[in-house]
Amino acid sequence: MLSHHWQNIMHRVLSSQCGLCRFPIQATAQPNALRWCDHCYQYLTPVKRCQRCGLSLKAEEANIESICGECLSEPPPWQRLFTLGDYDFPLSREVQRFKDHGQTWHIRALTQLLAQRISTPAPLITTVPLHWQRYLYRGFNQSNILARHLAGHLNVRFDNHVFRRVKHAQSQRGNKKSSRELNLKGAFTLNQPPKYNHVAIVDDVVTTGSTVRQLCHLLLEVGVETVDIYCICRTPAPGAI
């Protein structure tokens, strides 16, 4: 695995190529933080999403609503969810390069783009904690890296010690919502109540929301009034893609 230093050098050397399709970037292209060509950058065009769950709104909802029908009838414990896009190509590949292979050169750009979509930032950003066994295996907590960059872009405080993971749960990949919630029951505890009424939780991908739901309840139980979720990707509803 290349060190972060050499990753950055290689990125600068190849910066005349699109970071996604690898074709040369035209001189007339609009500059962007990811150094993608105009065609590839269109993948990140924002779509109308539910402000609560972050899922794409149906065509009939997008014209008149900002919150989907499911969240109106049964709202999640968080107030807003901000994301760059669906967990689909190309964002899914960018997350996998980071999470599974430790490639970080593109994280500053991704978090900068996400920060631009956050209208009213929480004064405190925290993260989903890893169990120590998972941390030793991977060598880093991807949520901490994302949150540290986001806090810098948004000029807010970052604290990765708000929560502690006390139960080693199996990987959540491929699990249904009910299995995820059972798997995570009792997995987290609060180290100490935050001194802020508005807190944001950062994760790389929100799938069913089971993980952040557990953390939200811990915050709300100690008097936090508003919790937001910041994530790179939101897994779309079944059949949406």
TrEMBL record:
<dbReference type="Pfam" id="PF00156">
    <property type="entry name" value="Pribosyltran"/>
</dbReference>
<feature type="domain" description="Phosphoribosyltransferase">
    <location>
        <begin position="145"/>
        <end position="237"/>
    </location>
</feature>
<comment type="similarity">
    <text>Belongs to the ComF/GntX family.</text>
</comment>
<protein>
    <submittedName>
        <fullName>Amidophosphoribosyltransferase</fullName>
    </submittedName>
</protein>
<keyword id="KW-0328">Glycosyltransferase</keyword>
<dbReference type="InterPro" id="IPR051910">
    <property type="entry name" value="ComF/GntX_DNA_util-trans"/>
</dbReference>
<keyword id="KW-0808">Transferase</keyword>
<dbReference type="InterPro" id="IPR029057">
    <property type="entry name" value="PRTase-like"/>
</dbReference>
<dbReference type="GO" id="GO:0016757">
    <property type="term" value="F:glycosyltransferase activity"/>
</dbReference>
<dbReference type="InterPro" id="IPR000836">
    <property type="entry name" value="PRTase_dom"/>
</dbReference>
